[in-house]
Specification:
Helix content: 40-55%
Shape: rod-shaped
Strand content: 35-45%
Largest sheet: 5 strands, mixed
Mean pLDDT: 81
Length: 214
């Protein structure tokens, strides 16, 4: 049998280092390595390449992976909180924030005066109303009024026929009675009731519509 050359051994070294050669091949390689420094150096380099500790590469990757996972959790929690806050704010706005119902949306079809009060018949839903009496002089009075509703009442509730009493003291005048005797009586000659489309900070302003006059 001819002598085994370094070229042949070099071809076998990686398989030898991986321990996947037969016993006969292992014996041949080991016999050659006992007398060949060059092949021994090649084997050492091969084993160094194969035996790099896995934790050297895995630990940094695990730290990066944990950092990414933690960041994703924080982003998810913050996103949920932001969306929840937006939805809660939107729900509160829809169910609690009142705005004036424009006159052309109230569908007022009749107005009566009963016992110094205004009785307004209309088709709509309201949550509250605002009213203000303005005495121009001893003979003239103006009344400003508006209906208010939340977006839920306006757009998410079924409209219905409504008879809304609106308190308006001295709408036609007043009487002072003592011991059953009228001691003072006053009646306004002119009374005008206006529906206003704007009300803010206790003040009526903007467009107004005359809805009743005496």
């Amino acid at each position: 049998m001819s002598e085994i050359t370094c070229n042949v051994i070099t071809d076998l070294l990686e398989l030898y280092a991986d321990e996947i050669v037969s016993n006969d091949t292992r014996q041949i390689v080991e016999e050659h390595l006992t007398g060949c420094d060059k092949c021994n150096e090649k084997l050492i380099k091969i084993k160094q390449k194969i035996n790099i500790p896995a934790e050297i590469n895995i630990k940094p990757l695990n730290r990066i992976k944990r950092g990414i996972k933690k960041k994703n959790i924080i982003i998810s929690v913050v996103s949920v909180l932001i969306v929840s806050a937006i939805l809660l704010g939107l729900y509160y706005f829809i169910t609690n924030h009142e705005t004036v119902i424009p006159y052309n949306k109230t569908h007022i079809y009749n107005i009566e005066i009963e016992d110094y009060q205004i009785l307004i018949h209309f088709i709509d839903n309201i949550d509250s109303y605002k009213i203000q009496n303005k005495y121009i002089d001893d003979k003239t009075m103006e009344v400003y009024i508006c209906f208010n509703a939340t977006y839920q009442t306006r757009y998410l509730s079924k409209r219905q026929f409504t008879n809304q009493f609106v308190s308006a003291p001295r709408i036609e005048g007043y009487r002072n009675i003592e011991d059953g005797i009228i001691v003072e009586e006053h009646e306004y000659e002119t009374v005008k009731i206006y529906y206003c489309n704007m009300f803010r900070n206790g003040t009526f302003y903007g467009e107004k519509t005359l809805i009743w006059e005496k």
